[in-house]
# Entry
Amino acid sequence: MKLAVYGKGGIGKSTTSCNISVALARRGKKVLQIGCDPKHDSTFTLTGFLIPTIIDTLQEKDYHYEDVWSEDVIYKGYGGVDCVEAGGPPAGAGCGGYVVGETVKLLKELNAFDEYDVILFDVLGDVVCGGFAAPLNYADYCMIVTDNGFDALFAANRIAASVREKARTHPLRLGGLIGNRTSKRDLIDKYVETVPMPILEILPLIEDIRVSRVKGKTLFEMAETDPSLNYVCDYYLNIADQILARPEGVVPTDTPDRELFSLLSDF
Ligand code: ADP
Ligand code: MG
# Structure
């Protein structure tokens, strides 16, 4: 099964992705997480360091794919989760979609692409170009991380539109929204009334999640020494269980930006 996690920058995609990956591994799945953000810190809380990116490695080897070995690009992370960072195109030039394409091509050549029960793509932000929508070509489910604010929901709507577009030609479904860093959900609820989609979970702002980034650990690793954090792991296990149940998901309906603007504003 292939998953793509999308959402506005800084919303918590990588944090959420790493913890969902460990949760899936706890359920006995062989998991690969692929960071597709030029920021290349997607897997940081799994490995505890910034691993070399596929693009860096390919450049080093002059794009001789046959000289690249699995251990050059696939790193072992916490809980048995394997980690890859695609890396970014040259700043201001190149295309994110090309990078994702090269990453998948290389993993296929290494016979790694079909070896996993779950591959999770952690993808940056507001999909406005076909390049950053590229992981949707491979995904069974897209999940969108959002808070209860206008900007993240606006981005969510653009991502939903991309899913609708890709679903014309691919067996892709929107798995649902993950509310993050929020205890309020009125705008999230308002949005899903208009564009119906499941809400998989709503996580509040939790200081220990913020700290996990600084420590370079997932909540599961932190809970080993502090069992009071098990309740946080349960949020991620709940998301993992819902996805593993292969839900029907949705092909999102169309809501033009202007309509969403007035829906989420107070006028
Ligand atoms: P993204 O990958 O979307 O850019 P990150 O996962 O890097 O975002 O998260 C950005 C910051 O927000 C990190 O420092 C992370 O620890 C923090 N964070 C994410 N989710 C939560 C949460 N539920 N509570 C508190 N802090 C969070
Ligand atoms: Mg990230």
User: Anything to note?
Assistant: Residues 150-166 form the longest helix (17 residues).
